[in-house]
Fold this protein.
Amino acid sequence: MAAKKSKNLLWKIHQWIGLYVGIVIAALSLTGAVAVFILEIDSLLERKYELPVVGESYTPMNAIISQVQLQHPGFRVLGAVPPKEEKSPLIIDIYKEAGVTDSQRYQVFINPYTGEIIGQKSHTNSLSNYLRQIHVRLLDAWWGRQLVGLAGVGLVVLCITGLLIYGQFMKNQVFGAIRKKNLRILMADWHKMVGMAALLFNLMIAGTGAWLGLQPVLVKWFDIKAPNAFVRAEKIVTPEIDIDQEYDYWNAVAIAKSTIPDFNPTQVIPSVNGTNSLEVKGDAGHLPFEPHISKVVLDKSTLEILHTYDIREQPFMDKFYYLQEGLHFGRFGGIFLKIVYALLAITSGVLSITGFFIYLIRKKKTVQEKDHVKKTIFIYSMATIFVLILLGMISVFIGYAYATMLMTPAVYIFLFCFISYQLFQYWKKEKTLKEPVHEKG
C-alpha cells in the first residue's frame, strides 16, 4: 500500500510539472537545438568580410580606432576581436547608449593590414543574439533568465520522477519496442523510450540550464565570486586619460599567446576606469569551458604582465564554475558533437508533446474526441514555432528592443491569467466537494 501511494505521488508530481513547465521546455528544446550552432551561423553570415589578400604588416590600433570613432561619433570601443585566421578581419565592438530602443551596438569589420573599414553589422539586432536571448531568457528583460532556470529545475524533477516511474516498467519491455495497440499506448511507449534513451543528456542540460538561469540570484544569495575577476588595485591615470591611452594591440595579442600554451585570443578589452590595463581573453585548448575564460592582463603602456589565468591550471571549483555553459552548448567537440547535441536537444520537446498528448487523450473514447486532441497538439506546436519565427523576424528586421517590449509583458500577462485560472478551477472544485448531496425524494 505504501509503495502504491509513493508511486501515485510520483505520478502526480511528474504530471503536474510536465503540464505546467512542458510548454517552456518545448520552446527551449527547439531554440536550444538551433542555438548550439550560433558560432557557425555567425561564420556563415560573416564570410563576406573575408579578406581577398593577406598583407605584410598590421595597421596600428590607434589609427584603426581613430577611423572607427570618426565614422561613429559618440560610440565607445568595448573591445576588439583578433583575426581568427590570416584572411579573417579584425572586429571592433562599439556601443552607444541612448535609451532602451535607441541604444546601438555594432561590430565593425576592419582589414587589419590596410585599416580599411570593410563593413559593419548590428550585434543587438543580429540572428545570433536573438537565438541566444530567446533561449537564455525567452526575450524577457525582467526575470526571464530566472524563469528559464526554474524550467531547468522542473526538467531535473521530470527526469528523476520519470526514471523512478518507468525504470521498473522498462525492465519488462524490450528497449525500443513500440506497441501499436492504440494511439495512447503508441505515444506512451515513445514517451518512455525517448525519455530513457536521452535521460543522462537531459539531466545534464537541465542541471546546467538551471544553474545558468538562476546564477544571478544564486551568486547574490550565497555571495559567490567569479573566480577570474582580477582588477588592478591601483588607479594609474584618470579615466579620461585611460580611455584615450594608446596601446600596442598586436604586440599585446602576441605576448598573451606566448604566455599561455595553446591560447587562442578572442577578445582584447582596454580599461576605462584608470587602471591602464588590457585584458586579453580567450580559450585555452578545446575543453568544455565557458568561452573567453582564460586571460592575460597587461599594463596598457608597457605591456608588462599583471595577471595570468589559465583555466586548465585552476582548482576543481574554478573549473566546475566555468564548466556549465561549455557543457550546455556543446562548445568543445566540433560540429559533429553539436549535431548530436541538436538531435538530443529535441528529445525534451518530444517528451513535452507526447506527455501532453497522453494526458489529453487518456479519457477520450470516441474517434472524434481523439482527433480533437491531435488537432489541439498540432495547433499548439505550430503556434509556438510561428511565435518564435515572428519574434526572430522582429528582432532582426525591426529591432531586438521591440521584440523584448512585446515579449516581456506577454510573459507576465500569460502567467497572471494562467495562475488565476488555475486558482479559480481549484476553488470551484473545492466548493463542489463541500456542497451537501441532497437525496432524491
